[in-house]
Design goal:
Two copies of one chain form a homodimer.
Chain A lengths: L8 H9 L6 E6 L7 E7 L2 E8 L8 H13 L7 E2 L8 E3 L2 E7 L11 H18 L12 H12 L9 H15 L6 E4 L8 E4 L2 E5 L6 E4 H12 L9 H14 L4 H28 L12 H12 L9
Antiparallel strand pairs in A: 1-2, 2-3, 3-6, 4-6, 5-6, 7-10, 8-9
Helix pairs in contact in A: 3-6, 3-7, 4-5, 4-8, 5-8, 6-7, 6-8, 8-9
Chain lengths: 319, 319
């Protein structure tokens, strides 16, 4: 669920008074989202989303995230547009947190990925990459390859409780990935977390791309690799090359891949699987019983990783 | 949180096709609510709430709940109006559950109860009682005094893990309550769960009364006792007689209490505290670690119960 911070009506009223978006009509916590508290806010002027940033988000990063969203929305990408208060600020204190109001986006995220979702997804990702290129500030990927050895170290002792021998096996795989990590590929701003629940569809088209709080400046093709992991595996963890082909077709129609980017897809996919495996493993081992967050099985990504280990080149992904 | 059942877009589209409420625009899980899965549904015709009934609700009770809501809404009470499908049904299958669409109510539930909330609350409760009197079908209170001994039995062995000696102490208190339980008081349909998060306020007035899934036919004044427990204690569990007086003033302005009802308030309040104590105790002892539901401390109601044990008559509640 995604309401960690409760907002009193008095605090909300005072907060809204600093914006020019009308009077409060309704205010309901949203179940989706994991990192922050999200509320659906209806005012006399329409629908908005109110987000309170929780402790996992570094406040110093917030102006970059909101700046990127503002830039992408101005470029026509259907992403939430941060609403500025009367004084021009788009980040303001509320209930002991920093909060932002963004525009409401229509649509629904696909609970089951169909092949039909994948081409529009790839196209939206390419458009996001292209549109982001005009936004000069950068943000280092805090969960990039540099961080993975450290992340694994924190879970190494307890990893065997998840699967016998998992720690040493991941350490060996991780060495292989970081040694083969590509250098010199095109970089720019990437979403870095474009999972199903961050993409809304309406009438077969993408109506919203949300949750930019892992966005950073990194290899474009790594963002594709994250999407291949998130969108192209079936429930039994078999890889669906038809979905992958559609995703890549959608992407390359807007931003063709260089030979070097295509050749790097297998290791980028391994890295993307490793990244989610490691954060899930850490959360799995460190989420207290009774916590509000559903723990996600890290082995889901172990299974994906094993597929990527068998990929010899980009043809494994239908390219 | 309150999304236990995920609905695919295909299933949602098929479901909506059987209603005459326009095309889907957005669909978001709502964080509030404990028993059922709730979604905010926006269509081209407006805002609605979609509820999927989860396993704690007996499907046989649903027509009564929805019938009561329809009746109360027709009487002008601001409660959700069940929307009927084209075939006239207001309960329809969706994603392996029974589901209903109801109208969206504006407002926000008060995170912190102020004295100003209590008089309108009392008035709304009385209006609910009066409006319900024209709805002939009845529903037994499945969590009424008859059920309490049984509920306590299920927790008796483990209750001492919550507080030493709790089991025997509750057993003694419960005997006292059920022996003194009043007979012959006016009965009718009661909400039976009118906690803060089930009451929306907008501009100082009540704009919504929701969640009728504990509603039943029982002593009217017992519903008042539930509200006194839910709305009139401070965070330190001290009783706020000013709030209580306001609540009772709001209620009696619409439905005066008989002498017998007033005299029964202390034992009814003890019973109401016992009812929530017992269900919370059971949930506390039986909620698996990692469950999505936040366990609520049963001792919150033990502390309330101890206050009610000191109440000699209705004057303790400001009457």
């Amino acid at each position: 669920m995604a309401v960690y911070t409760e907002v009193t009506d008095e605090a909300l009223a005072a907060f809204l008074a600093s914006y020019d978006i009308g009077a409060m009509v309704a205010f309901r916590g949203i179940a989706e989202g994991v990192e922050n508290s999200n509320y659906a806010l209806k005012t006399t002027q329409g629908d908005f989303i109110l987000t309170l940033y929780e402790k996992r988000v570094d406040p110093a990063d917030l102006p970059w995230f909101l700046g990127l969203m503002e830039h992408l929305a101005a470029q026509g990408l259907p992403c939430p547009l941060p609403v500025r208060a009367k004084d021009g600020q788009n980040l303001n204190p509320l209930a002991g947190r920093i909060a932002a109001i963004t525009t409401f986006l229509p649509g629904v995220w696909p609970r089951r990925v169909a092949i039909e979702h994948c081409e529009p997804l790839g196209a939206a990702l390419a458009r996001l990459h292209l549109a982001g290129s005009g936004f000069p500030p950068t943000r280092k990927n805090a969960l990039g390859p540099d961080s993975w050895h450290n992340l694994l170290q924190k879970s190494l002792n307890d990893a065997s409780s998840v699967q016998p021998g998992l720690g040493p096996e991941l350490a060996a795989m991780l060495n292989g990935i970081t040694n083969a990590w590509p250098q010199g590929l095109p970089t720019g701003h990437i979403h870095a977390d474009l999972f199903q629940d961050n993409v809304f569809f309406l009438n077969g088209e993408i109506s919203g791309v949300i949750d930019f709080y892992f966005a950073c400046t990194d290899i474009y093709a790594y963002d594709i690799a994250i999407c291949l992991n998130a969108w192209c595996f079936e429930r039994d963890f078999s890889f669906n090359i038809t979905k992958s082909r559609a995703l890549l077709r959608g992407y390359t129609a807007h931003r063709p891949l260089s030979d070097a980017e295509a050749a790097a897809l297998p290791v980028l996919c391994q890295g993307a699987a490793m990244r989610f495996l490691l954060t899930r493993l850490y959360d799995w081992l460190n989420t207290p019983p009774g916590a509000l967050v559903t723990r996600k099985d890290p082995l889901d990504y172990y299974r994906r990783l094993r597929f990527h280990n068998t990929a010899m080149d980009a043809s494994a992904y239908g390219l």
